[in-house]
Amino acid sequence: MPANPYKVGDEILVPIERLRRPQDREHAVVTRTVNAVDGAFVEVDDFPDPVTRGPDGRPKPQPAPPPRRLNSSIVQPANLGVLILRVGDFSSELTLLDPLAKSVLQYLRLLLPDDRVKAVSLRTWAELQAVWKAESDITTHVVLVSHGSTDGVSFVDAKPKGGRELAAGLLALSPDTNSKIFLSLACQSGRATFLKELSSSALASHCLGPHQNVHGAVASQFCQTFLSALLLEGRTVSFAHKRAAAGAPAGISWRRWTDGKLTAIQR
Asked: If 22 and its partner were Cys, which of 16, 51, 72, 79 is the partner (CB 3.0–4.6 Å)?
């Protein structure tokens, strides 16, 4: 990705914490138009002060607030869309996978408008292919809720899919789709056999996941903290990873892969 992927006139999503009076906003991001570009920075309009009225009841003129200058790394593209994929196995759905997926969904509904978030429950590789074909072009972030092992992610109708096989199968369905941030909550999915291979493909820009087995509550906590830093505070992926991993119990290693390289290990 270039240092600044935006140009004047582009619509972007700006974290409310980077603007004035964020407590007045319903969601974590608001739409803004890029007014100027300067190197790695973009300039957008800020929120004006509340309207005040004089003794005659007429609104007083309000000076326009100074524009807000933001690093392009902390804003999001206007097409932001989060897809939660819950890959079930029949036996642990009610007690583990469904509660975990629902916890992520409900938290995202606090951060983003409902039309920016979609959760899909499936069990088979064939179902995932159908979902991906329909949703990939409007998805920028993927949260994967499933069982994993050193062999990859499990499906009830196929052998586990490693990162290379998963990426190849999904890219075949939508070869021109934008690269996405993948956050896998599946056990052992942070290993090279899955996320290294996935991050090496054109499908992914950043891939994060646990190196060991992880409890569902720990996975939910990590995911919510990561998304809060990324979307609500407008932090980089690197910062959000570090923040989320800092709150994880000792012994759990959350790894981040980019372009097939292990870019960070946070314990």
From this structure: 16
